[in-house]
Write a structure and sequence with these properties.
globular, two-stranded antiparallel sheet, 4 strands, 368 residues, mainly alpha, two-stranded antiparallel ribbon
Length: 368
């Protein structure tokens, strides 16, 4: 009995070790596609769209960690995406305006001749870069401390995260003089000294985003295949047993939730120079659900599946919404429902399911 238990406990670790060469090959293939093939085959416009999709895929990496491994349905990632995006946009607007000057939209909408106090720290590029990740993580830590500490989970957690996202979007709309209101922040001229109107610099932004996505995938994979990753799955499957073993499930879930928030914040920050705008329309309830749909369709428990699913759904939204603007939203919602209800493992689990059924049929045939 003891030997069997020991072998079972060691199995995930052997799988992780054995998948090392395969993971390295997959990483090399992804790097070749993103850094070699895509820039050669795609026009500047299409490459810009791919950069946008890659930012959405970065959020999916965090969703895979928090939802796929931790069981937390994170329907409020738009909050952290928006915090990171606005942090970056505020710095870019201040850099465009010049030292001591107000951003252009404040001159148009504002009545205060001075820069608001909470804008001033974003004049520093170092502070702004750190804030794009640390502010979302700090908000997630504060929220998670109270939510997970009180045992809130499941649908209640999802609804609460959505409510906070909606509140943040409403607050942004009401602060037109300091946040741009419904128009958001747009018309960025430069990106840390580089002219964003130059196609060469736009390609540089794409390469930065592609590198960030690959690094986040490596980080997430290390966490998933570590002792912490196994503990996170254990908390997802049976919190009481983990608590009996001496661990605090709230702390385990909080770490994954905060990490996913930091990834979403970084994605929002890089989304700003890639697309050229950040607004409440991009971070409300519907956009937050859209950020999760791709991971659900591709396979929330599979890192590669979540990323590819996010890229596919983002591309489909761009392609199909132009032809069927009134129907696409319903189709998108149907995708989420079907993925969760009938294919919980997403498309990534489809191959395993087919192989399992084929093996079962073959075994039945041999038995006969």
């Amino acid at each position: 009995m003891t030997d069997t238990t020991t072998e079972t406990a060691k199995a995930p670790r052997r799988f992780a070790a054995g998948s090392g060469p395969r993971a390295a090959a997959g990483f090399a293939l992804g790097a070749a596609l993103l850094f070699g093939i895509a820039p050669l085959l795609l026009s500047d416009f299409r490459l810009g769209l791919l950069a946008k999709y890659l930012c959405i895929a970065m959020v999916a990496v965090g969703v895979c960690l928090a939802w796929g491994r931790g069981g937390m349905l994170t329907l409020g990632q738009g909050l952290f995406f928006g915090l990171g995006g606005y942090a970056m946009a505020m710095h870019l607007k201040l850099a465009d305006a010049g030292p001591g000057q107000l951003p252009d939209f404040m001159l148009l909408y504002g009545t205060n001749p001075e820069l608001p106090w909470w804008w001033r720290p974003f004049e520093s590029p170092v502070f702004a870069l750190a804030a794009t990740v640390l502010i979302p993580m700090a908000v997630a830590a504060l929220l998670g401390f109270f939510v997970f500490g009180r045992g809130v989970k499941g649908a209640y957690f999802a609804i609460l995260s959505q409510a906070l996202t909606a509140a943040f979007a409403i607050w942004l709309v009401g602060q037109q003089a300091t946040t741009g209101g419904t128009n958001g922040l747009t018309d960025f001229q430069g990106f840390f000294g580089y002219d964003l109107d130059d196609p060469v610099n736009q390609r540089l932004v794409y390469f930065i985003i592609a590198a960030a996505l690959l690094l986040l995938m490596v980080l997430a994979r290390q966490l998933i295949h570590s002792r912490y990753g196994e503990l996170l799955v254990a908390v997802r499957d049976s919190e009481e047993r983990v608590r009996f073993l001496g661990y605090n499930p709230a702390h385990v879930k909080l770490a994954a939730y905060v990490t996913a928030a930091g990834m979403a914040g970084l994605a929002g920050a890089l989304f700003v120079p890639a697309v050229g705008i950040v607004s409440p329309a991009l971070i409300g309830i519907v956009p937050s659900i859209e950020l999760v749909i791709g991971a659900a369709v591709g396979g929330r428990a599979s890192l590669v599946g979540a990323v590819l699913g996010a890229l596919a759904v983002a591309w489909a939204k761009t392609a199909l919404s132009e032809e069927f603007p009134a129907v696409w939203t319903y189709f998108q919602g149907l995708l989420f429902v079907v993925a969760v209800a009938f294919l919980p493992g997403g498309l990534a689990s489809l191959v395993k399911t087919v192989r399992r059924k084929a093996a079962s049929r073959a075994a039945s045939g041999e038995a006969l």
